[in-house]
Write a structure and sequence with these properties.
Strand content: under 5%
Largest sheet: none
Number of strands: 0
Number of helices: 14
Low-confidence stretches: 1-79
Structural class: mainly alpha
Distance between the termini: 125 Å
Radius of gyration: 46 Å
C-alpha cells in the first residue's frame, strides 16, 4: 500500500469521502507529483495500484464510493447526524416566517387560508415566546401562564407586523411579547398595587443590593443603598416594602410551623381602658398637689375600693372626718383643674 494514499477520516472536517485532504493532489491522476519513481535500490511495492487501475480503497473522483457522498458534496455538519445546528434552525425559521408573511399579505382576513397561515406563523415563532418568558423565571409564577401571556403578545405582533418596512419579525415582536408579560405581572400578579415610580425604583434598589453584597461581603444597610443610588432612606425603605408587596396573606391563614396561630389570633384588641388614659394622667398630675393624708384617702377610696367606714378604721379617724376630707380634696382638685385649663 502506498504511504501517500490515505483513508477518509470521518472526524476530520477537511477530508472528503475519497480519503484526500483539501489541497492534496490525487494520487490516481498525478502519480508523478505524489509518488517518486522507483529505483533499483528501492523497488516499487507489488501492491501499489497503477494510474490506469485505481485502488478500490481510494476511489477516484470519477467513481465515487457508493457508501459516501460525492467529492463535490458540501461537508457534513456537526457529529450529531440528522439534527441541524441551532443557527441553521433559526435561519430557517426566519426565512419561513418571511415567506409566510408575504403569503399572508396576499390573503383576505377572515378566510380559512388566512387563518391557516396565521396559525402557522404563531406555531413557528413560539420559541421566541419561550425565550422571553425565561427571563421571568424568578417571579414564582407558573411558566405555563407566562408563556400563554407572551403568546398573546406574539399574536398582537403578528397582526400588526408590516413586512414592507424591512424589519425582521423577531426584532419587532420581542418588545411586544416582553411588554405583555410585564403588564401581566403589574396588573394581575400583584394583589397590592404600588405606584409605578416605586416599582421602577425597586429594580434599581435590588440591583444595588446585589452589587453592595458582593462588594462588602454582607447585606448592605439602608444608608449604603441610599448613598449608592442618590436617594433618601425613606425612599429606599418604601421601595423595599413595594418589592415584597406581591401577595396579601389572609389574616385567618395558619402560619408555617407546628400549629402556629394565624395573624388574626395574634392581633391586639381595643382596650376598654384606653378612654381613661387621659383622665388618669390628669388625676396623677393633680394628686401630687394634695397633702399626704388627703392623697392617701383618695387612693384608698377610689383605687383601693374601700368604704368610708373602712378608711376611718384604717386611719383611726371618724367616718364624718373622712367625708369632710374627701369633699375638701375634690374642691381643691376642681380648682386646680380650672386653673390648669
Amino acid at each position: 500500500m502506498d504511504p501517500t494514499e490515505r483513508h477518509a477520516d470521518p472526524t476530520d472536517p477537511h477530508s472528503d469521502s475519497t480519503g484526500h485532504h483539501e489541497g492534496q493532489v490525487d494520487a490516481c491522476t498525478e502519480p508523478s507529483a505524489t509518488r517518486p519513481e522507483p529505483t533499483e535500490s528501492a523497488p516499487p511495492a507489488t501492491d501499489s495500484p497503477s494510474p490506469e487501475a485505481p485502488s478500490p480503497e481510494a476511489p477516484s473522483p470519477e467513481a465515487p464510493s457508493p457508501d459516501g457522498p460525492s467529492p463535490d458534496a458540501p461537508p457534513h455538519g456537526p457529529p450529531q447526524a440528522g439534527r441541524p445546528p441551532r443557527n441553521s434552525r433559526a435561519a430557517d425559521a426566519r426565512a419561513l416566517t418571511q415567506v409566510l408573511f408575504e403569503e399572508l399579505s396576499k390573503l383576505e382576513p377572515g378566510t380559512p387560508e388566512h387563518a391557516r397561515v396565521r396559525a402557522a406563523l404563531i406555531e413557528i415563532n413560539l420559541p421566541l415566546v419561550r425565550y422571553a418568558a425565561a427571563r421571568f423565571r424568578s417571579r414564582n409564577e407558573p411558566m405555563e401562564d407566562v408563556v400563554q401571556v407572551g403568546t398573546i403578545g406574539l399574536i398582537n405582533a403578528i397582526d400588526r407586523f408590516d413586512p414592507e418596512r424591512g424589519v425582521q419579525f423577531p426584532t419587532f415582536a420581542m418588545p411586544t411579547v416582553v411588554g405583555e408579560i410585564k403588564r401581566y405581572f403589574r396588573d394581575n400578579v400583584r394583589t397590592v398595587h404600588v405606584p409605578r415610580r416605586l416599582h421602577e425604583l425597586w429594580v434599581q434598589v435590588s440591583g444595588a443590593i446585589e452589587d453592595l453584597t458582593v462588594l462588602h461581603g454582607r447585606s448592605p444597610t439602608t444608608a449604603e443603598i441610599a448613598e449608592r443610588l442618590g436617594l433618601s432612606e425613606e425612599e429606599v425603605l418604601a421601595c423595599l416594602e413595594a418589592g415584597r408587596a406581591y401577595h396579601a396573606t389572609s389574616l385567618e391563614a395558619a402560619q408555617e410551623g407546628d400549629g402556629a396561630p394565624g395573624l388574626l389570633d395574634r392581633l391586639g384588641y381595643e382596650d376598654p381602658e384606653l378612654a381613661g388614659v387621659e383622665h388618669r394622667e390628669l388625676v396623677r398630675h393633680l394628686l401630687v398637689q394634695l397633702p399626704e393624708r388627703e392623697r392617701r384617702i383618695l387612693l384608698l377610696r377610689y383605687f383601693g375600693n374601700l368604704t368610708q367606714s373602712q378608711i376611718s378604721a384604717e386611719l383611726g379617724v371618724s367616718q364624718m372626718h373622712v367625708s369632710r376630707l374627701l369633699s375638701r380634696s375634690f374642691a381643691r382638685l376642681r380648682s386646680a383643674n380650672q386653673l390648669e385649663a
